[in-house]
Amino acid sequence: MKVAIIITTPDFAGLNIKDNLLEICSFSETGEDYAGYHILKKDDANRVMLYTTDDKCIFLENLHDKIDADLFIMPTIHRSESGKRTLSCHTQGNWDKADLGGVPKNLSIAPAFYLKKAIESLVSVQKEMGLDYEPTLECTHHGPQLEAPTLFIEIGSSEKEWKDKAAGKAIAKVILELLDFQPKKTGWKSAIGIGGPHYCNTFNKIMLRTDIAIGHICPKYMVESIDKNMIMQAIEKTQPMPELAMLDWKGLGGCKEKIKLILEDIGIAYEKAEKILKRV
Description:
Blueprint: E1 3-8, H1 12-24, E2 27-34, E3 37-42, E4 48-53, E5 71-79, E6 86-90, E7 93-94, E8 106-107, E9 110-111, H2 112-129, E10 134-137, E11 150-157, H3 159-162, H4 165-180, E12 189-194, H5 201-209, E13 212-218, H6 220-223, H7 228-236, E14 238-239, E15 244-247, H8 256-266, E16 269-272, H9 273-278
């Protein structure tokens, strides 16, 4: 599988993570350039390339047309007004407007198994290193629009954390674990997630305690604006094809009946996440 790791120079966290990757793992120059920077190749894996660009990651539209890869990994900053110290991962797309890159009402491709592996690895590496950061999923949000599986992996939430060498090393370690990951051997079930807050508290537990891997996640604050077409798109753009929809039931607010009717019309099974967690 071809993997492209994308580093953007305006991004302090991305540069921090790149420095740590090059410190703990061997990369060599390929002799080719991209966007004015040398393309690097992981020495023991000919199909893992590291690219650097001056463009902001959320505006790298249709990057799949320029770089041939089966999976894009984007190490970046996470910005939050709360200032919460986080190590997070998510895929990208816009449930409605495109205020931060991408295309309105258009999702990219969510690699559900890689997202599950990423949150598992974030938790284990954070514990191993004793870091004062919260590992978490985030819901699907922002650009760029890519027609290839993409995973954002981020340090939050201020410049102090973005430049924290220990946090950068943690993310670098997780990326290396993702590069060795073999999803076909897991036996996991793929799903989409609907409801709950931006940081996906309930879906974090599902990913960490069950064999369910969640791709696209639509948060409560976007549920009112989504329709059947958007839910169909979330299903079609989650890989592998989802077997069910996971519902953060309390986190659906007044849209419970609306979502149930849409899912029944589509014909996809759905489960209340709270019920599953009571059984594990």
